[in-house]
Amino acid sequence: EWLPISSKTQVLLVSTLLLNVSVATAYAFGLFMEIGSIGSAATYFWRDVLRVFRDRKLLTYLVVVTAVTGFVGVPLFLLSEKALSDAYNVGYPMLALGLILIGDGIYIMISREKRREKTFREMNLRDMIIIGAMQGLAALPGVSRSGMTVSTMLLLGYSPEEAFRYSYLAYIPAALGAFGATLVFTRHQIGSMASQLAPEGVVLAVLTAFVTGLLVIGALLKVAKRTKIYVINFVLGALAIAGSLIIIANYSNLAAANATLS
Questions:
Q1: Which of 3, 12, 77, 128 sits in a 20 to 30 Å window from 90, CA-based?
Q2: ∠ CA 91-82-14 to the nearest 5 degrees?
Q3: Segment 42-82, tens digit of pLDDT
Q4: Which value, in Å, is the radius of gyration of the alpha carbons in the chain?
Q5: CA atoms within 13 A on the CB side of 158
Q6: Backbone dihedral region of 20: left (phi > 0), alpha (psi from -120 to 50 degrees) or beta?
Q7: Average pLDDT of the residues in 238-256
Q8: pTM of the model
Q9: Widest CA span in the chain
Q10: Contact 181, 27 (CB under 8 A)
Q11: In 22-55, alpha helices (H)
């Protein structure tokens, strides 16, 4: 979840190729697994969570971004099953994101003028709407939520540290909404997946996501604070491209497995 490589798509690939479940079921289960990441984000940022109702700026940010995310994301979520059943290769959106990140990094590196980095307190309504819309696009298979929001904030001129921090904070309510939508719209697919796994296996997977999230969030925030912005762009872009190429290369196997199970 915390890197620009779609976590739900990683779960989709592993579940489909190794556990012999349909693509749609694996995708729904990937969204269900977000509960572990929600817990790690809420735990790491517990001070921010507690001050939400005392900090008008933060509350406004979370309300606007979450509302726009739902407006954009819910219809895309409902269309995702059809996209997965058609010839939609989930690696291409991630590839495009990686190229955009690297292109922006090159622009920043060769630009003669030092770009002033904006702070969260300077964020306006337009930026909040843009961030929410980009986060909503992550409802599509293959699109990384953190990749979309972090790269958008970097492109809007925010510092890497603030981009990561407020991307992760925006994740909490959005992921809770996605988790709820998964239970409402795809509960039969979640039940199908859960029936193939022992209960302790599901619990272990959620706990692993929780612990991994705590470690990765802390590490990435430290890196973002100490590293130049164009280096961040290059690294995130390279990770996104590498992940997309793996998905694209294995998509024929994934499609064949899905056809067999359909």
A1: 128
A2: 45
A3: 999 999 999 998 999 999 999 999 999 999 988 887 777 66
A4: 18
A5: 25
A6: left
A7: 73
A8: 0.78
A9: 58
A10: no
A11: 23-32, 34-44, 46-50
